[in-house]
Design goal:
The complex is a heterotrimer of chains A (306), B (251) and C (400). Chain A is mainly α. Helices cover 74% and strands 1% of the residues of chain A. Chain A has two domains: 44 residues; 247 residues, MetI-like (MetI-like fold). Classes of the chains: A mainly alpha (306), B alpha/beta (251), C alpha+beta (400). Chains A and B meet through helix 1 of A and helix 2 and helix 3 of B.
Chain lengths: 306, 251, 400
Amino acid sequence: MQVNKKYIKKNKTIDSIYKYFFMAMAILASSFIVLLVLFVFTKGISPFLSGYEYGQVNFFDFLFGLTYRQDKGIYGVGFIIINTFISAFAALIISFPISVLTALFIVKIAPKNLSKVMQTIVELLASIPSIVYGVFAGGVITGIVKDLALLFGVSTAGGSSLLAVVILLAIMIFPTITSLSISAIQAVDKDLEQASLALGATKTQTNFKIVLIAAKSGIFAGAILGIGRAFGEATAVAMVAGNKLFGPTFNPFDITRTLTTTMLAGLKETSGLDYDIRFSVGLVLMVVIFVSNYILNLVKKKVGNM
Amino acid sequence: METSFIVKDLDLFYGDKQALKKINMELYKNKVTAFIGPSGCGKSTFLRCLNRMNDLIEGCKIVGTIEKDGVNIYSSKTDIVDLRTKVGMVFQKPNPFPMSIFDNVAYGPRCQGLKDKKHLEEIVTKALKQAALYEEVKDRLNESALGLSGGQQQRLCIARCIAMEPEVILMDEPTSALDPIATAKIEELIEELKNDYTIIIVTHSMQQASRISDYTAFFLLGEVVEFDNTKLVFSTPKDKRTEDYITGRFG
Amino acid sequence: MSTKIKDKILNTITYFASGISVFVLGAVLVFLFSKGFSTLNWDLIVNNYWSQNLLGTVDSVGGDYTISEEVDGIYSARWGIALKDNVNSQKEKVIEVTYIHPESPLKTMLSSSAGDNNKEITLEDGYTIQKIDIVTSDGIPTFTGKIMSQDAATVISNIDSAQKITSIYYKTTGGGIRSSLITTLYLIVISLVIALPIGVCSAIYLHEYASKSKLNKLIRQGIETLTGVPSIVYGLMGVTVLFPVTQLFGATTTSILLGGLTMSIILLPTIMKSTEEALIVVPQSLRDGSLSLGATKSQTIFKVVLPCAVNGILTGVLLSIGRVIGESAALIYTMGTFINDSPKLLSQGTTLSLMIWSFMSGEQPNFELASAISIIILVIVLVLNFIVKAIAKKFTKNFA
């Protein structure tokens, strides 16, 4: 075909313009994380610097303090960090075995139709927004906790408590861990199972002794994702935490306060120390997530190699 | 005889692995040249060098020259788009685009900026006729190309290719995914096309090579063992390895 | 213990574990529907949240508006109005209008409220009566109504025995979610308009162009890290990084625009992931075919690759819509929690989720309304997920 040279040249220019346009978009997209970290960091660190306009805050008092009272200007997040870890890991401990067993059930044990139904249920649970879980927690979980506490002869703040937070988080991270476990179990090599069966192991023994062990790396990845969600969950938790002013909270029937609920509590002003300190708390939250992610990933590597 | 490509000392590497070794070859105009050899011998890789489709593969490095009309196609002066409009390609598996039959054939000209509807219609009709597909599809040009049979799809891909009026058509095992009847039709088509085009075809089947080609190159482990007139290659091979291959001792 | 029994126990445990999730889902649904279903109706969707106070001049002695059919509440044939004692969604006692005769002197009046003087206003079913100014049969001006803590029966008997009604002070129906629905739509549009092109283009770059260079690895790493950031931190980012951007458009406070911008960044990883998954499925042979015909790379992408990937992009859009509807934490920082009945781009506003937050974080959590909105959210999200699944099914069929 007779090719129009001028058109080819124009075409070529357009082509390279597109390439750089796409590249610019990709760079823009990834630069948001840089902006995010940069700005939250600068703003979060500002109250600890000398010359801070609302009066400098001592960094160590902030990080290790065991009282958080906006009304008195005391900001200590030490106990809040501990609370956050307690609630997240307690939720994981409850949710993890249930999730893994459910995943095993769906992939290996359930009859085909039941397995489909269960998978849909897990997907439905995953698609429920956290605010809706919050309403559920405020209406049902707190009620259960209240009654349970009365059984032990303890009174609660209307059911708002550490236990309510833990149950709520356990429910919320369940679909995350389950769906990753499902993929991990599905990915297990069929030959491995055959080998186990050929050695005279029953189907159930194979499932528990071979399949789960072979899928452990993927299951662990699900747990890491789940705990990340537990750390970062905000609105739903804030509805049942109760926001204690000091701590840490170990009693399951006592109210508690996590990093995210602190960030949401009494948000009225949009300037001043009370506002800026939320950025510091947000910074702590990000550090908590990244550090625990890092450590858990190291553990995962070790577990995976065993 | 006029040459279409002159290949000089061509080496091709995938990372550290050398896939083509010191290829030297002259490919003639308006002839059918067949590349044969066992799988993994580099024949398809070499074919894809001729329109620079290997450029798409990461870590692929090429040394040596391929001259077309006196210009090295790997030099910076060559425009890759320009080259591909002159050297068309038909692939192993029919790969029609998920659009109408008409749009498939008009795709190449449109990419070159041709918008005139009447002109496009002429090109499409001519290309479909040349590809011996027109009679079968003339009433459903606006239907999806994915509804055609495998053999029809492959002829559509050939029509799509000749709509660009290339000088050379590269065919990478064009019949390996087709049944014998569809294969026969494509072979017939190649016979006719060679009057207007230079055709270079990679094939798995030695019968096919001996049936349709004028020249045959035998590849083995990234090298050209033998390249000559098809009749000579099949009747009196010079190399023992060629003889072993065509008599079916390996491959 | 024999192996058989052991196996049975282990299997039973997995049945039991799975039962827990069924139970939880059931509990969530039963709770929401039992609390919220009775509140769900069309009025909830079309009404404003805040009720409006209106004062209308009547100056009428009434007439005869006898009707044949039964109406709810107590009917005054002289004034053509029926009233009933009721409780509103804020749990306050009200006197509600259950019927108003179309020719009643109370139906259409001139407003005498400051601001919109002499504007024509109407009294509709569902509105609540605060106060009616009357002149008694003795010629003494007085008033009757809810502010006197009277019930519907007293009010009807007072106005029936009065010489005339001079004016009426009433409240329009509130407690609706119209504004939040509009705000949610706003937010969906803004965030998608921004996130969709950026997300799709980045995915194209990463999948179609990017070589394994260090820069590209860095880009990918950056985007993957975005996925792990909790949404509340995005809220912080919104008010620091993006607020100045909205100021350029004239924003003075947190606004719907700011919420939309923040949301668009939250959506980026979702859109990129589903686009990239769709690009992976597009057969390489189609790209080769296009390039071998002399098409440029961008022509190949726009004419062949993207049309094949359109389902995946649509999936990303639907998932994003679900995410916008469900998001709360990031928006509390960037949009405020004040329920605004006339949401504008640069004003504060609440989405459905934020509205729930606003009810639930108050002194008296309003479970009925929160559950009703939750049901609406759930239905939308479930429908979206259903469509996504349907697309995925069709999609795998196309390329199988």
